[in-house]
Design a protein that fits this description.
The complex is a heterodimer of chains A (about 260) and B (about 260).
Chain A (H helix, E strand, L loop, with lengths): L2 H25 L9 E7 L3 E6 L7 E7 L4 E8 L6 E3 L6 E3 L4 E6 L2 E5 L4 E3 L5 E3 L3 E3 L15 E2 L4 E3 L6 E4 L2 E3 L6 E3 L6 E3 L6 E2 L4 E3 L1 E3 L5 H34 L6
Antiparallel strand pairs in A: 1-4, 2-3, 5-20, 6-19, 7-8, 7-11, 7-15, 9-10, 10-11, 12-13, 13-14, 15-18, 16-17
Chain B lengths: L2 H25 L11 E5 L2 E3 L11 E3 L2 E6 L8 E3 L6 E4 L3 E5 L6 E4 L4 E5 L4 E6 L4 E2 L8 E4 L26 E3 L7 E3 L3 E3 L8 E2 L6 E4 L1 E3 L5 H33 L4
Antiparallel strand pairs in B: 1-4, 2-3, 5-18, 6-17, 7-8, 7-11, 7-13, 8-15, 9-10, 10-12, 13-16, 14-15
Helix pairs in contact in B: 1-2
Chain lengths: ~260, ~260
């Protein structure tokens, strides 16, 4: 079979996966703390051509290299640009005004998030729904007991009287953002490669949520480019099919 | 079908749900005692695009979005003077406790539009428009007046009813240590969750009752309409994704026609 077949098929497969990533970005255009993903494609390394002899089937004689046009997906990278702020009137909504992450203690370990839409869990600690408890700057969960709290812009949580300090939200940041990636769980990031984050003093906005940083114009154009690339590959594939059809059915036919 | 098709569909469903919640808020912009319900989204689970499920790779894509939670915004609404004898508004934190006389179930509300109603036992109880009895600080129904017993054939005399403003000290106002889990049922009634703690009677503490007035809905129409426009646009984008995915499927299907 021709090489072209496989090149085009891998191209179509890649564009299909690209569409999956774009679809997730577009539907999450309104999710607080969401960071948009970008799909990166690479090519295989140049492929070695070799020819095997008629008599000796052991060694191939190298003829040269050809550039392979197979595009395969490599990674999806995340864009950590700050989203814009949306003021809400909820006591338990926080947003980080700058770089940094909240720490969440989940059943699968320590994870990080930008989503500040917190709740009180059943024992009275600050938690992220379906995830786990949010840690303070002492790396312990913060007990509040009631959602009648006040918060200062350095992350300190005060009781309703405005004086009793209940805790302080712990914000951490990573030196190398290549060391974190989106975990399988919604809205959370995990540290890979054992990188340890350092505490930072980024200010916090209370009663605010950080909106998604998805740029819908970019996603739309990426989606259209991806779709058209896929359709072009399909067209050429049809031509290949016709060609091979001729080769198998018409050439050499005994009339 | 590809993932992008389902991701788009899941997104469209989530935004549709959000539109439903916003529409409910807007419809209740004039309901007394109604509390605005903002909703928040959350992403769906991520999975590998080209590897075994448990393997940690960088090559992942999410599966869309879903409505994570709908909060209740307990900001105080404005006061509306009605002049009706048994209308009350809570100025500050707290709820009225109302009880269903048949099921004995207690719910809580901010809607103070009450009236007197004669029950078979000859007492006038303070009740809501749908027949639930308002409770005092000891969780007992409040009696506003009694029908004097009449002999056979005699026209009943006029009954003594306690005036609206004199009932203020009897009506029980309850607060909860935490309001984070309170759910709203049947319009303006609320049921607390386990984690919100036991209802506590507030005495003083800056909470007073105003008579002959009602609390207006705290829905901010400008904000809700803006959110409605946003939800509408996101819905369109999600459907555009479904359409694109469908075209891709058509192309693939037409490879060998």
């Amino acid at each position: 079979m021709s090489k072209g077949f496989y090149h085009l098929t891998s191209g179509m497969l890649t564009q299909n996966r690209n569409l999956s990533v774009i679809a997730n970005n577009m539907t999450n255009a309104a999710t607080p703390g969401f960071k948009s993903d970008e799909f990166i494609t690479t090519t295989f390394q140049n492929e070695m051509f070799s020819r095997y002899g008629n008599i000796n089937h052991e060694d191939g004689q190298e003829l040269g290299t050809t550039s392979s046009m197979i595009t395969a997906g490599e990674v999806t990278i995340t864009d950590y640009t700050q989203g814009i702020f949306e003021p809400t009137d909820m006591n338990m909504d926080f947003a980080i005004a700058g770089p940094g992450f909240f720490q969440v203690q989940t059943v699968d370990g320590l994870m990080y998030t930008r989503n500040g839409a917190f709740i009180i869990d059943d024992e009275g600690y600050i938690a992220l729904q379906h995830a786990g408890r949010v840690l303070g700057e002492d790396n312990q969960p913060i007990y509040i007991g009631t959602d009648n709290i006040q918060a200062l812009d350095d992350g300190t949580i005060l009781a309703a009287d405005g004086n009793t300090v209940l805790g302080r939200l712990g914000i951490v940041d990573f030196e190398d953002y290549n060391g974190i990636q989106k975990s399988k769980q919604e809205g959370l990031f995990t540290a890979i490669g054992g990188q340890q984050p350092a505490p930072v003093d980024t200010p916090i906005e209370w009663k605010t949520l950080e909106k998604s940083n998805v740029d819908l114009v970019k996603q739309m154009t990426d989606m259209m480019a991806s779709e058209r690339a896929l359709q072009s590959a399909a067209q050429v594939l049809k031509m290949y099919d016709q060609l091979l059809g001729k080769a198998t059915t018409e050439i050499g036919r005994v009339q | 079908m590809d993932r992008s098709f389902y991701t788009g569909a899941v997104g469209a469903i989530a935004h549709q749900e959000r539109l439903n919640i916003i529409a409910n808020n807007i419809a209740n912009v004039n309901t007394h005692g109604y509390k605005n319900k903002p909703s928040t989204f959350s992403e769906c689970i991520y999975s590998n695009l080209n590897a075994v499920a448990q393997e940690p790779t960088d090559y992942i894509a999410g599966a869309g979005v879903h409505v994570e939670k709908t909060n209740v915004d307990f900001t105080q609404g404005h006061l509306a003077t009605t002049g009706l004898e048994y209308d009350y508004m809570i100025m500050g934190d707290g709820f009225f406790a109302i009880q269903n006389p048949v099921t004995q179930e207690i719910t809580y509300t901010r809607n103070g539009n009450f009236m007197t109603s004669l029950q078979p036992d000859g007492n006038f109880y303070l009740e809501t428009a749908n027949g639930k009895r308002v409770l005092d600080a000891n969780q007992n129904p409040i009696i506003v007046g009694t029908l004097p017993p009449t002999a056979e054939g005699e026209v009943p005399g006029s009954q003594e009813m306690i005036a609206g403003e004199d009932l203020i000290e009897q009506i029980g106002i309850y607060t909860f240590p935490s309001k984070n889990g309170i759910e709203s049922v049947r319009g303006t009634e609320f049921i607390p969750a386990e984690k919100d703690g036991q209802p506590v009677v507030t005495a003083g503490n800056g909470t007073i009752l105003a008579n002959k007035a009602l609390e207006m809905s705290n829905v901010n129409l400008g904000q809700e309409v803006t959110k409605m426009i946003e939800a509408q646009r996101c819905y369109q984008y999600a459907l555009r994704m479904v359409q694109t995915s469908d075209e891709v499927e058509t192309t693939i299907n037409g490879l060998r026609s």
